[in-house]
Every structure is written in C-alpha cells, then in structure tokens.
Inverse folding.
C-alpha cells in the first residue's frame, strides 16, 4: 500500500459518547501533525481551524441495482477538493453523526477511483459510552452497525461504571465484533497517536488479529448483529472461493456488514487477505509467507448469519483432499 | 500522431511557468485581454493572452481556489474558494469580495454577460446564489442536495444545476422559484446545456453521461467510459458533445436523431491514458484535450487530424480553456505547470 495515500480516519459514535471531546483534543493537542477534519455541524467544535470542513452527510445509492451500495458523495467531493490544497496535511478525519450507518463512508473508499488514487481508509474509530452502550445496542440498529464496523473502539466514560460492568460491556462488544481493538478511556483521554495512522483497515493488519479470530465466537446470540468465524485446514481453491464469495455477497451482502479473511491459497507462497463491506470486496496477497500447515480463516460480522451454511460453503472452497 | 513537432510548438509559440500549486481552473476574460490561472494555494495568476512578459500573482483565497470564471464585465474574473469567498479580480490584479458563505466551500462559479449587464452565479452546498452585474445578490435557489455543477444557457435565460438524482433547470428571471426537475437516479457530478437549449446533459458518478431532450424529457444514456467525465462541452454549432473520461476524446452526435442509439466518435486516442479535460473551440469544430500524462493536443472533428502541443510531463492536465476568439489556448496541470499557446495564423 502506497504511503503517498492520505490516511482517512472515520470517527463514529452516538451523541454524548465523547466524539466531540476527542475531536477537540485531536485539533488542539500538540502532536506535530496537521489534520483536515470533516464535520457535520459547524460551531460544535470550539476550534478555529482552517482545515475544518463543513459537510452535509449526503448518501446516495449507486446506480447499479444494488440497494446496499450506498456512498457518501460529499466525501468524494471533499477528498478530491482537499487534495488540491497546496498546504499539505497528514491525514483526514471524518466525523459522522451519531445515528449514521458507517457503511456508506467505508464503501466510498471502494467505489470512487479518484478517492482510491488519493486516500485510503485508515481506520473506523467508534466512541462508545460504557454506561449507555448496552441500552443503545438493544434499541438501535445504528449502534450495532457502528460497533460492527469499527476497527478501533474507544470504550469511554469508564469512570461512570464499575470494573465488572466495563468487562461486561467489553464482552458484549466482542460478541458483535471480535476483530476490533478496544481502548478503555475516561473523557476520551486516548493518546492521539494510538488512533491515527493505524493502518487498521489495511488487510495486512488482519494478520495481527488472526489469533483472536476464533476466540470470541459466541454462539448465544441469535438476533441483532453478531459474528461467525470459520477455519479450514486444506488450501483454498481461489476460483471456487471467488465464485462462492461473489454469490454470497450478492445474495446476503445486505446482512453481511463486514467480512474479513486470511487465506492460504493453493499453490501460492504468500497469504491472501480478503475483506468486504457489504457487497464490496477487496483482496490482495500479503508479503508474509504461508507457514507450514497454515489454515485459512474467515470472519463474518452481520445479521441472520446461517452458520452451518457458511461453514459448508467455506469448507467446499478447499482443494480436494 | 504528429509528435515530432510537439514540444517545439510550446517553445516557439507558447509561454510556460511553474506556478507551484495545483492549477484548479483557468480561463480568459471576456475581452480576451487577460488570462487567469486559479491555484490550490489560493492565488490567481494573471498573464497577457500569449503569456509574454510578467505574470502577476494575486493572493485571493485563504485556502484553495475552487472555481474561476470570466466575470460579467469585459475585463474581470470571478473566483471562489474553500475559504467561502466569492471574489472579483480585476485585470490589474485587484481583488474585491462580492460574497462570503461563512466558511462553506464555494465550488462552482458561472457567469453570463449581455450588453446591459448579466448574471453571476455561485454554488454553496445546496444553494445557488444569483447576483447582478454589480455583484448584488438577486436570489438564492435551493436544491435537494449539494450542487455539483452550474451552467447558464447561451442566452442567459436559464441556469442549470446538477445534484443527486438529476438536475434542476431554473428561469433566471422568474419570480416564482420552481425549477424544472430532470430526474434520473444517482449522483450527477457536472452539467452542460446544448447551445440551442435542445438538451441538458449531466456527468454521473457511474462513469456515464445522462441527458434529457428538453422538448419532451426523452432520456439519453451515454455509457462506456472507463473513468468519470470531469469535463465536457458542446461544439459551438451544437452538433457534438465532447467529453473526457476515456483514453480519447469521446464525441456524442447531437444530430440525426442522436445521441440515442448512436455510438460516439472517439478521436485523439492515447492508449491507456485517460483524457482529463476537453475544451471545444469557440467557433470551429476543433476540440482541445488534456490527458492524465500531461499531453495537450488539438483535434479536428471531421478529419480527426491531431496536433500535439506538448508531450506532457508528470502530472495530469487539470485546466484547459480557449480565448474567446479561439486564437489562444491555455492549460494547467496538477503539479502547477501553466501554459499559454498562441495559435493565430502567422
């Protein structure tokens, strides 16, 4: 992945979770980096900064007959516009409103060639209020989506809950999203450098998560958003995998929020990393070599996941024994 | 292609400068007496029409310039920036603020001139503001989503704005502010009006153009582009719509029943290199085109003859414009190269 691409961090979280506090810190702290910040409501930030861009979250449906293929057209314009500036910056932070579904933001980075040529999605960071998250997860599809999409979750306002309650919330998060990095915080006091330039959306990062792939697969949840992880031993027939995944994403892409995988492709010396946001998929061979007896792993985060069917489908992608 | 004489053309009949920032837009004033380049560092550079002598650097925007247009007047220019300012720049290089948006980006500017005055328009988010020749705001036109392109018709009677799910066509002088809405699902990112106001065409996010025949609303679908069309325009006689977004100049026929059911004509192909800017000659059936590899050329539609003005450099062509008399061409690139070429007969 080229370093000339400007990293973009997407900041999500419900109203009152601590997003604005965090943004203000990023803009005012001396961390030596310049960030362009795309926000929805001017004036909410108490900072006068020439790099704050006022945006209207404008989602549109791609004209390709796919209803879940929604994109933020305003972001396409803003990123292309920012790139014309002479005074460069080190990154872009995109704030979403509390009720926003993160999918259109993520999908923007798959869809638009101009954006792909200039910027890369670095991480989706979700700020969650430790005291209120369980209630939000119960009553709001957006809250589940924000947790499901996150690469990094800031579990904020820990001073308001007991350690036991914090652990319970974390377990709840893990059930939805086993791959995200969870950072505990009070008043959003997370070091800025641990949030930005993380390459957390990068496929290569999935590798570091690999051991955790299977650890949090909780079978108790049958409603709402949850995850399902699978592992197969024999190498993968890439042709079969692409065919299966293509059909699966086409048919179930609306329910599959995120899909990530590390594959041992038959006849290939390097690992293959795969990921998808709803129907939009992307994959690449990694620099890391395939180890002896390397397994292939796949994680789905979504709704109405049919585990036996997904397992059978993945298993059928293996080369013949 | 006739490339042997390529860069010689630029050296013998042109003037170039490295201006140091992304050239966002370029145009001549209406009199054709000055040329202006608007840059990503907020400056506007003014030059004599053939580029001779000193180029004047004017600090205009606190941020990046986003749009530039000839003003309603003969001599001035109008520029807009991401600082939310709409400014009038005189041929002598004085900048006057006409309007400020309170920090919201002003991404598009367009003007129409007539002997008794004219109209100036700019787009700020979902609003299009209309001003008279003196710069006084006449009215604001509201749209359902952010305006992505602006165009006056050739008589200045109507103004079109592209946005999500289509375009709005307004009568500029109308008291009742109801536009004609031209609908087509998706994100529309630019707009052009046929010179005889027979059709309106938008560029789309999905690498396609969409058109409406204005007499009956008949849809026109123009597809097959490998990249987005960022630049398009009709020839003076309205026969052809020239567009960027492929590795050639893509020309759609607007005669003989077209463009419906007719394939486009593709000229000046540079295999694998996307054409990024087109500019139709103000009189003749000639199209200037700039490419992603910095090549700038002029192509004749009928004969498909091509004259290469520059072999290019490291950066894509990002601005391209003819002088009003069609005797001079100006262009700029993303890396800050700016050039003026004199094409008048010698």
């Amino acid at each position: 992945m080229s370093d000339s691409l400007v990293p973009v961090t997407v900041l999500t979280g419900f109203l009152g979770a601590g997003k604005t506090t965090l943004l203000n810190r990023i803009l005012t702290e001396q961390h030596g980096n310049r960030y362009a910040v795309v926000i929805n409501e001017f004036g909410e930030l108490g900072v006068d900064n020439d790099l704050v861009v006022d945006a209207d979250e404008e989602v549109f449906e791609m004209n390709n007959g796919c209803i879940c293929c929604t994109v933020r057209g305003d972001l396409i314009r803003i990123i292309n516009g920012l790139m014309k500036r002479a005074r460069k910056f080190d990154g872009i932070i995109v704030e979403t409103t509390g009720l926003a579904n993160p999918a259109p933001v993520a999908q923007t980075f798959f869809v638009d060639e101009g954006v792909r040529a200039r910027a890369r999605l670095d991480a989706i960071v979700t700020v969650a209020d430790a005291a209120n998250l369980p209630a939000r997860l119960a009553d709001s599809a957006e809250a589940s989506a924000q947790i499901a999409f996150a690469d990094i979750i800031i579990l904020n306002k820990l001073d308001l809950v007991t350690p036991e309650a914090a652990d319970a919330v974390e377990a709840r998060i893990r059930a939805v999203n086993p791959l995200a990095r969870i950072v505990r915080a009070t008043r959003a006091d997370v070091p800025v450098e641990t949030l930005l330039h993380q390459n957390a959306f990068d496929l290569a990062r999935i590798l570091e998560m690999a051991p955790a792939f299977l650890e949090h697969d909780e079978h108790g949840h049958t409603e709402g958003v949850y995850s399902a992880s699978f592992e197969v031993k024999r190498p993968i027939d890439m042709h079969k995998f692409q065919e299966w995944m293509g059909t699966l994403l086409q048919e179930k892409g609306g329910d599959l929020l995120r899909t990530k995988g590390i594959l041992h492709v038959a006849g290939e010396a390097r690992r293959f990393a795969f990921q998808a946001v709803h129907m939009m998929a992307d994959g690449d061979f990694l620099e890391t070599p395939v180890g002896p007896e390397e397994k292939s792993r796949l994680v789905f985060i979504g709704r109405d996941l049919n585990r036996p069917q997904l397992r059978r489908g993945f298993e059928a992608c293996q080369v013949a024994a | 292609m006739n490339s042997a004489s390529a860069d010689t053309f630029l050296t013998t009949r042109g003037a170039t400068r490295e201006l140091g920032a992304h050239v966002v837009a370029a145009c001549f004033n209406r009199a054709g007496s000055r040329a202006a380049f608007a840059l990503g560092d907020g400056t506007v550079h003014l030059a004599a029409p053939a580029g001779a002598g000193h180029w004047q650097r004017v600090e205009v925007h606190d941020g990046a310039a986003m749009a530039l247009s000839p003003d309603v007047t003969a001599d001035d220019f109008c520029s807009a920036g991401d600082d939310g300012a709409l400014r009038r720049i005189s041929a002598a290089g004085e900048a006057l603020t006409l309007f400020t948006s309170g920090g919201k980006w002003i991404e598009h500017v367009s003007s129409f001139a007539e002997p008794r005055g004219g109209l100036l328009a700019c787009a700020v988010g979902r609003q299009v503001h209309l001003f008279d020749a003196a710069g006084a705001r006449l009215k604001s036109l509201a749209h359902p989503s952010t305006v992505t392109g602006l165009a006056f018709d050739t008589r200045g009677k109507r103004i079109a704005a592209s946005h999500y799910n289509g375009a709005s066509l307004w009568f500029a002088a109308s008291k009742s502010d109801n536009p004609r809405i031209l609908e087509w699902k998706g994100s529309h990112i630019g707009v052009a009006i046929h010179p005889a106001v027979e059709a309106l065409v938008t560029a789309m996010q999905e690498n396609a153009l969409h058109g409406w025949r204005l007499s009956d609303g008949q849809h026109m679908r123009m597809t097959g582009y490998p990249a987005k069309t960022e630049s398009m325009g009709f020839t003076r006689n309205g026969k052809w719509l020239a567009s960027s977004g492929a590795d050639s100049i893509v020309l759609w026929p607007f005669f003989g029943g077209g463009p419906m059911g007719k394939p486009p004509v593709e000229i000046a192909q540079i295999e694998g290199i996307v054409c990024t800017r087109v500019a139709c000659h103000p009189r003749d059936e000639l199209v200037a085109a700039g490419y992603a590899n910095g090549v700038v050329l002029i192509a004749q539609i009928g004969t498909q003859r091509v004259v290469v003005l520059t072999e290019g450099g490291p950066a894509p062509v990002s601005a391209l414009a003819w002088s009003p008399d069609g005797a001079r061409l100006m262009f700029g690139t993303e890396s800050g190269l700016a050039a003026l070429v004199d094409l008048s007969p010698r």
Q: What stands out?
A: The CA atoms of residues 56 and 301 of chain B lie 36 Å apart. The interface with chain A takes residues 20-22, 24, 39-42, 62-64, 66, 82-83, 102-105, 107, 125-126, 145-146, 148, 164-165, 185-187, 189, 204-206, 227-228, 334 of chain B (CB under 8 Å).
